[in-house]
## 1
Amino acid sequence: MTAIAGYVSTVKIGANTIQLVQTADLALAAKSLDTTSLGGNGWETSIMGTLGGKLALKGSLDQSDTNGQQAIITAFFGRTLLSGVVFSPDGVKTYTFNCWVTDFHPASPATGKADFDFTLLPTGAVTAA
């Protein structure tokens, strides 16, 4: 098994790459639904519920990235759905979904560069390919 360099990763909205992303972290999880009942054998039981997750993005703020960062900012303030977001952690495998922008955190320290944190919340299926 060979390690893969992170720099080949991409995050896109449709065909448009979101510029200056330094970290992209897709966390998907299944909910566990408790089915433990009285009179059982003392062990908890459960069934699997819905799947969900989030994509956390961090990077350098670029106001000129109109089809990437600005599209995310516009969707956040407009409370509009982003369609066709594609995350590729290795330049080959992709995860595609529609999402809401739930968090936007711009930061600008006096001694550093302007940065962003975005959280994208998939709605509906995440398609792996």
## 2
Amino acid sequence: MSFLKFLRWLFAGFCALIALVPMAVAAVCLANPHRPQFYLVDILTLPAFSLCAVMTVVFLGLRQRVATALCVAALAAFAVALGPQILPHQPPARADARPIRVVFGNLYIYNRHPGTFLAFVNAQHPDLIITVENATLSRKQIMWPLEAMGYGGRCDFGETKIYSRFPLTHCRHIPFDVVQADTATPQGPLAIVAVHLAEPIPFPGEAHHRQFDKLESELAGPDHRTTLMAGDFNSDFSAWRLQHLAGRLGLHPLPAWSGSWPTELPSFFRIPIDNAMAGDAWHLSHRAVSSDFGSDHRAIAFDLTPAQ
């Protein structure tokens, strides 16, 4: 074997070893193990898929067949793991029904100009707005302007607020950043749950898991066909926690093909931790993601349409 062939063989082996990394990560994401150390990996399924796609193109350009094949296999595993997030099962929408447009945004507690969020609101023309991390500045820059724009229904506890064009009733609070309210829309009754859960770090994220358990226990029991739950879950539907919560409550997720956090990264490298789920009376669609408005999160908008 010539020295040049040896170097090529060595380089091919090195590329194959690198390609084994996304294979291992994809195996964890596909298995969805209920362990804290793997849960953090599972949340990163979408950016891991995107990075693996870049690696596949690079190895293809370098003509590394083994490494390319390993990355393609990893992409297939990532795609299956992303299924509950990008192609969730939900009832079809009624063709004759007008959708309710909803906007959710994490305003970021240290945002010096939270009012720039209103540009996204004006572009989306929502009927319902949910915000978390509302600091003192948001009262002047967001709350008062929204009231002037016709969002007369308001329900808030702490840093979590719900604004609505429809009257809100039965406002109540679960003892962390979760606010509930009911409203009667022209499309039917709607039970709103606005959520902001703790981060799953520092490891093992005990506060995060306790809040999920508390949320499940507080909401377990009643019929959730008319429920809309939206917020910053600090998790996504590729991970078992949100899948389990949705399954327990009989909710289905909003399809999310791109992420919302952190705001600085390209869309497919962000994590869709800002999300929504709804009961079988509703169909979720037409998700849109905002531009940067000074928060570490991008805001999202989506349609809530009566289901068949």
